[in-house]
Amino acid sequence: LFAIKSYNQSTAATEQSLRHSDPPPRVPNLIGGSFVNSQSSEFIDVINPATQQVVSQIPLTKNEEFKSAVSAAKQAFPSWRNTPITTRQRVMLKLQELIRRDMDKLAMNITTEQGKTLKDAQGDVFRGLEVVEHACGMASLQMGEFASNVSHGIDTYSIREPLGVCAGICPFNFPAMIPLWMFPVAVTSGNTFVLKPSEKDPGASMILAELAMEAGLPSGVLNVVHGTHDIVNAICDDEDVKAISFVGSNTAGMHIYARASAKGKRVQSNMGAKNHGIVMPDASVDATMNALVAAGFGAAGQRCMALSTVVFVGDPKEWENELVKRAKTLKVNAGTEPDADLGPAKDRVCKLIQSGVESGARLLLDGRDIVVPGYEQGNFVGPTILSGVTEDMECYKEEIFGPVLLCMQADSLEEAINIVNRNKYGNGAAIFTSSGVAARKFQTDIEAGQVGINVPIPVPLPFFSFTGSKASFAGDLNFYGKAGVNFYTQIKTVTQQWKDLPGGSGVSLAMPTSQ
Ligand code: NAD
């Protein structure tokens, strides 16, 4: 196999590389510490959504190449798990420094491959960087418990041990943050890892893996393999993979959850969403409008915590007029342009907008026919607002994942909460109000895993966990925070006796008790 010294040497998926008309660079796998070109004959184009240019190509990695990545991770495990925790933490301390150093390069890669604006791409990296910072305290996070003298001369204590080879399967919308939710926690707690980035934007994962090696992560501890369904299925079936972290759509997530847990693996699966914001008549107009516009249209609506539905309690007319006024001021452009508020989004979005119109919703703002000068081929949709949306409409039932805000109406807070609770998803929900009583009722009665009170995108920082619920999550232990460490570790409970053993009491076959 042709081994390459660095990822940069093989491909630099940035604007510069696109100016040449050479064939697109092929993204290598990372196996056992070497960047290796796949021997596969099948490749998929990675496309810049603002220009439709091919940035690079990922291989549909062959099964034997995948097996060699798992085998490299398996071989690296014994010595990595025995590496002092302080040494493992120091790799993360160095990694956070290197991510800061290369922040602009990571952001440019994300904007080129995914489309979001450069500023938003920096946010993508930063929210992942915070998980790396948190992993620097793994020695405390991974501590067990100790109870002294539970019986005569007997102590009991628990140890959290790494599982072995873990794997991560990523979506396209956060190319840096989501890999960073996964491998830093897994490897710092002593596991080794196989990462499968999204086939749509693999570049950020490659840069991060290269930085992790520069930070001192030994060969084989982190491996990266590319592909789609086949490699995902191989990860689910492989006996040496002990746990899988997945983030993406419900179709893929439930398939992976079922297939991998049937093989006895741990799975944490973060999936789709339909996040609602309830606006009470007493909400602060300016702050609420800013929150709705930012959370509905930021990242072109391609955040799993985007606020895609707003329920106005009372008459929605004035709120909707103001919303349209503010949404119209947003600038749609390529993410690399400094004035861009929204980058490109997917075609599927337009179909769901049309189905909303056909089922009776009013189109207050239509972003479908937008043309961005200089980026005429781009995959753009402008801010779109549909009003009078009801629960039976396709545009409400399906996740749109684009810059589309659906407006609904309710006569009371109770009714608004019931609408949200009937929705199958449970990632996030927010209320905008100046009433503590309404806020407290909402917090208690709402069935969503992440609740915002006058906060539109309540994504918890890494000392908490990302706690989506209902159809937005499958598994028992959430991503990052204490739950994340528990996911990547197996608890072992030790009972020890150190005392002068009394002689002559004979053998007792009764269940030992502490009496
Ligand atoms: P996706 O499910 O299409 O792809 C995610 C990963 O799964 C990719 O690596 C892909 O190769 C693989 N995959 C896709 N279909 C598969 C199949 N049938 N069998 C096996 N593997 C398959 O998701 P996406 O479009 O990349 O990401 C957007 C989705 O992710 C949205 O639904 C969004 O809400 C969700 N998301 C959720 C969170 C969260 O934390 N809840 C965060 C980000 C994104």
Automatic annotation (TrEMBL):
Transmembrane segments: none annotated. It comes from the Eukaryota. The keyword NAD applies. Signal peptide: none annotated. Pfam families: Aldedh (PF00171). PANTHER family: MALONATE-SEMIALDEHYDE DEHYDROGENASE, METHYLMALONATE-SEMIALDEHYDE DEHYDROGENASE [ACYLATING], MITOCHONDRIAL. Belongs to the aldehyde dehydrogenase family. This is methylmalonate-semialdehyde dehydrogenase (CoA acylating). It comes from Centaurea solstitialis (yellow star-thistle).
